[in-house]
């Protein structure tokens, strides 16, 4: 008799990179309330995986300069083994999530988390996270900031850049 496949928990770490400033200043600056400026990462197989201007990186959970997450969302479980997952990340790092593909507004950490969450669990991350750039850009102030925001490169320090050679470098 075959053993059932092992299930591995998948979590979404959500960080407010504004450290509460978005909540306080967004009504004045944007004319609407934002609860935060979100950076996300995926926790699976005992590591945290995220995407930034340096490409795909990993670290122990909570191991970036951002510290502990502001919230943790349980995305369910996956049957995807660590070996298959690392191969998948390697292919992403060589294709759509190369460092030069990073764009704060259109192809960022949340795009990565959403893609990986769907691969692992079939579920998307919450829309309040993925819709945030469009919400900001829908305001006059957001439109004025667009050229500046489009040039911003974000890479939380503290992790290891993911390498296809051995999983981590």
Automatic annotation (TrEMBL):
Tell me the organism: Trogon melanurus
Q: Which UniProt keywords apply?
A: Hydrolase, Protease
Q: Which GO molecular-function terms appear in the entry?
A: palmitoyl-(protein) hydrolase activity; peptidase activity
The enzyme's first-digit EC class, named in words, is hydrolase
Q: What InterPro entries does its record include?
A: PPPDE_dom, PPPDE_sf
Ranges for domain PPPDE:
8-150
Q: Does the keyword Protease apply?
A: yes
Q: EC number(s) for this protein? A: 3.1.2.22
What the record says about family reads: Belongs to the DeSI family.
What protein does this entry describe?
palmitoyl-protein hydrolase
Q: Does the keyword Zinc apply?
A: no
Q: Which gene encodes it?
A: Desi1
Q: Which reaction does it catalyse?
A: S-hexadecanoyl-L-cysteinyl-[protein] + H2O = L-cysteinyl-[protein] + hexadecanoate + H(+)
* One Pfam family of this chain: Peptidase_C97
User: Which terms under GO biological process does the entry name?
Assistant: protein modification by small protein removal; proteolysis
